[in-house]
Every structure is written in structure tokens, then in C-alpha cells.
Design a protein that fits this description.
By secondary structure, the chain is mostly beta strands. It is built from no helices and eleven strands. The strands form two sheets. Strands 2, 4, 5, 6, 9, 10 and 11 form a seven-stranded mixed β-sheet that branches. Strands 1-3-8-7 form a four-stranded antiparallel β-sheet, with no helix packed on it. It is globular and about 40 Å long.
């Protein structure tokens, strides 16, 4: 199983971004999937997730600005983040949590700058 994250880059403050995470391989017993991010000097923190049943959860820091979605036909998950702030800067990692293990993408850098 491989997860390929893409869509990062340099974005202006107030702008928007859309990250993609394409999954390949056979994945069974999916519990949830989503995105973490790691800001410089900080631990990896959850941005948002979507369960196998479709329930979504977002971190307080992105609530109202963030949408996680998935396209099952394309085996791809998306993260859209609007009204970007400098604090949104970091490496974004997608993940899929199954029973019994967790799969990670390689990370994509997002830098928000004025």
C-alpha cells in the first residue's frame, strides 16, 4: 500500500490550497483517514479526519476553513483549506488507519507567506 500526497507549495496568506492523497494497493478494514501536519519545531498534529462511515472531524485551528473529502472511485482523498494563515505552514501528511495498522503518505510541504 502506498499513499502519494501532492498539492503543496507556497501560498499567500488568505489564499486557499487543495491537497490530494492517492492510494494504491489493496486496503482492507479502513477505520478512518485524514491529514496531519507538522509545523517546524512541533509535533505532528491532526488536521482532520473522515471515518469509514463518513463522519468528519476537524481540529479547532482549522474548523470552518477546512474540508476533507474522498473520491472512492479514484482512491483519492482531498484536503481543502481556505483563509490560510502563517500558522498553517508545515508538512502535511495523509494517513489511512486500518485494523491493525496505519499507513502514511510521504508528506507535502505547505508554506503560507505574505
Amino acid at each position: 500500500v502506498q499513499l502519494q500526497a501532492s498539492g503543496g507549495g507556497l501560498v499567500q496568506t488568505g489564499g486557499s490550497l487543495r491537497l490530494s492523497c492517492a492510494a494504491s494497493g489493496s486496503i482492507f478494514n479502513i477505520n478512518s483517514m485524514g491529514w496531519y501536519r507538522q509545523a517546524p519545531g512541533n509535533q505532528r498534529a491532526l488536521v482532520g479526519s473522515i471515518t469509514s462511515g463518513g463522519s468528519k472531524h476537524y481540529a479547532d485551528s482549522v474548523k470552518g476553513r477546512c474540508t476533507i473529502s474522498r473520491d472512492n472511485g479514484k482512491n483519492t482523498m482531498y484536503l481543502e483549506l481556505n483563509s490560510l494563515k502563517a500558522d498553517d505552514t508545515g508538512v502535511y501528511y495523509c494517513y489511512i488507519q486500518t485494523i491493525p495498522r496505519m499507513y502514511w503518505g510521504q508528506g507535502t510541504q505547505v508554506t503560507v507567506s505574505s
